[in-house]
Predict the structure.
Amino acid sequence: MIQQKPIENFREYSQFESLKDFNNNIEAFLFEHKKDFTRSELMAFKGLVRFCAKVYGVSNASINTILRAIKERYNGHGVSESTFHRMKRKCVKLGILTVKETVRKDGSQSSNLWIFNRFLKKDDSRSNGNDTPCNQRKQEDTAKNKQTKDEQLTPQKTSHHSFKTSNLNNKRNDVQLDYTYTSNRVPKEFRNLVNCFFDNYKMIEELWKIITIQTRYLTYYTLQDKVDLAVDTFKQLIRNLKHGRKIKNMFGYYWGIVNNFLDAEMFEIMNEVA
């Protein structure tokens, strides 16, 4: 019996070279077997996959933790534990998932260890991972070419006081600090973009904080994914402002934009696998 421990100690069970390698295998599996799952089971499957990013393809998250994350992601509309177990049995039968029991130090039963197996040959996924039994059918290329529409934004430095929000008020005798005082936790790409419009470190940090909160359960999101999301949503914010949209609460409005982007992404994923 395997003893429960921090997820980093289970790296030996990972069969993937990188997160991209893992994602490619999951996409290939769904392309072949999405028809074998119901919509709710696919939601449960995706929920489990999101917890397998820290150690590629491996997780020791409890079922309750996974179900709570799914429920929060869908604004209270989650899946039942019985649905999760149906999904688990199908995945095990199809060979994509191995489930191992773990125990605590006192010998009591703990959460399972979820181990995703390779679906693609290592040559197909361009990975140097371990050789494991793979589906022999050649995987069709399902990657979509994403065409991004980058609109030209005319940088225009705007004083912090040009946009009065309920969340960003400093005392009149406070010294206004510019973008150079922004925490190094905020990626430079996003900081520099926001600085073109708001030369205020607090504004930049609060906007980035919204990104980190909204993606805290999206464990498959890399830092670059978060930066891309932040850039796209901030551009949407600026477009709306330039089109005359009156905003009372800048941060609340931005929160809504980010939430809508993530909802659209999830619906797109579910439509692809449905």
